[in-house]
Amino acid sequence: MAGEGKGQDVVEAILEDHRTMEELFRRMRSVEADREAARDQFSALLIAHGEAEEAEVYGALKRFRGVDDDEVEHGEEEHAEGNEALLKLLEVDEVGSDEWDERLEDLVQAVSHHLDEEERTILNGTRENVPAERRAELGAAFLAERERQLASDCGSIENVRKIVAR
Ligand SMILES: [Fe+2]
Ligand SMILES: [Fe+2]
Q1: For 15, which of 23, 72, 85, 138 is 20 to 30 Å away at the CA?
Q2: What is the widest separation between alpha-carbon atoms in the chain?
Q3: Burial degree of 56 (CB within 10 A; 0-12, 13-18, 19+)
Q4: 81 alpha carbon to ligand 1 midpoint, in Å?
Q5: Which tens digits make up the pLDDT trace of 77-103?
Q6: Residue 106 — pLDDT band, cuts 50, 70, 90?
Q7: Residue 1: which pLDDT band, with cuts at 50, 70 and 90?
Q8: Cα 120 to Cα 110: distance, rounded to the nearest angstrom
Q9: Of 129, 151, 119, 155, which is closest to residue 11 (Cα–Cα)?
Q10: CA of 14 to the centre of ligand 2 (A)
């Protein structure tokens, strides 16, 4: 219930996913890792995370003074760029090929840029302006939508194509 402070802090929940994404980049680079499995896991996480931010977090944050609306809208544009780069990697047939390396590099660049900017702008705006109770409510809403996405196989190539086309 509202006011009881239940739910994980939304900033912490988002940061946890960012760290996991960075770890998956490392696995997608390594010849010793199951790179295909890492790609599947990354795809599901990137889509679930971004869709949940847009559905449950970004809009709510815009209502707080001190969270820059332009930064939030820019964040949505960067999600779209990351999703396009993800689709290009999903379309590579041969894991570890030159094409794989090139497209992975593009994906890492697009997503790393967004994580950096989101943490410096939107998340710092949240840290400074959103009370703990509201942060916990937003965290709960974020995690629920994220779970819903993951349960619907949100990282499949068909779904990523749909999202990129919209
Ligand atoms: Fe994020
Ligand atoms: Fe984001």
Answers
A1: 85
A2: 53
A3: buried
A4: 13
A5: 999 999 999 999 999 999 999 999 999
A6: very high
A7: very low
A8: 16
A9: 119
A10: 8
- Dist. CA 108–CA 26, nearest whole Å: 10
How far is the C-alpha of 69 from the C-alpha of 131, rounded, in Å?
Answer: 18
State the distance from the centre of ligand 2 to the C-alpha of 77, rounded, in angstroms: 9
Which residues are near ligand 1, the ion (C-beta closer than 5 Å)? Answer: 14, 118
CA distances from 51 to 46, 65, 131 (A): 8, 23, 23
Q: Rounded to the nearest whole angstrom, what is the distance from the C-alpha of residue 48 to the centroid of ligand 2?
A: 11
Which pTM value belongs to this model?
0.95
Supply 8's token pair.
């994980």
Find tokens 């990697």 and name the residue. Answer: 89
In this structure, what token pair is assigned to residue 59?
Answer: 């809009």
